[in-house]
Amino acid sequence: MTLRALLLLLCAALLHASWNLLVKRSRDKQVFTWCAMCAAALLFSPLVLKDIDALRGVDWRFVIASGATEVAYYAALTRAYERGDYSLVYPIARGSAPAFIALWAVLLLGERVSAWGGLGIAMIALGIQAIHQESLRRLRHPLHLLRAPGTRWALVVGVLISIYSSIDKVAVGRIPPDLYIVLMFAFVALLPAPYFLIQRGVAAVAAEWRTNALPILAVGAMNLLSYLLVLRAMQDANVSYVGAVREMSVVLAALFGAVGMREGFGLVRTVAAGVIFAGVVVIAGYG
């Protein structure tokens, strides 16, 4: 992996962990997140004007496919959190995604993953599984974990992450990333709009905006920028490596939780963070 791609992904991870912390502190997380998606599309709409000539030749199949998968991802993630504990759902979803991405990259995109690269991906996936566990003993029986409520939905989330990541990898080879990201975010904001405006109600949306306007704008900006940095990294590196290294955000999120929200970190998280970091080093140096 090039130094440029690595730095882009580390910056993306920092932004991703930061906006997730703000979402975690919000009251109505669904409405808050949707408002942030709308804000992101509006804030960065001038990027479309920069690539106005390319807009005429956009292959909308990628925008629609990735956007629809993103909407399904948010729906599945919500269902997973309704059925299972955060400490199980989050690591299974984020930890399984790099493995699925590597699988699709090899089978469908023709990428080659070196032995060192495969080791790095495995280390990152294992570290993510461990970082939200109270004890490493829970990792001794992975099939038992899958029987817990919500974890099957968590695997669905991991698959969906891998699908839209694979679509994005192909898309950035055909569509300028700046243009693609704004169009995709606009699609993700528009598709569930009837649900939020009719079923949840305009009053609920307006109340969330009045209460959290600045955090919503901040989350929208950081979300889109972090995604854009990932797309830029995909232009320089295998999506299988990008999908793994971007999960450094999990370590940063745990650190932010420990410092900003007084959540425990402890020995297990320290070891897991070290394993994830080592996996990133392996991919960066030998992948």
UniProtKB/TrEMBL annotation:
This is EamA domain-containing protein. Residues 4-128, 152-283 form the EamA domain. InterPro entries: EamA_dom (IPR000620), EmrE-like (IPR037185), Small_drug/metabolite_transptr (IPR000390). Keywords: Cell inner membrane, Cell membrane, Lipid A biosynthesis, Lipid biosynthesis, Lipid metabolism, Lipopolysaccharide biosynthesis, Membrane, Transmembrane, Transmembrane helix. GO terms for molecular function: transmembrane transporter activity. One of its GO terms (cellular component) is plasma membrane. Pfam families: EamA. The chain crosses the membrane at residues 30-49, 88-107, 113-131, 151-167, 179-197, 209-229, 241-259, 266-286. GO terms for biological process: lipopolysaccharide biosynthetic process. It is a multi-pass membrane protein. It is found in: Cell membrane.
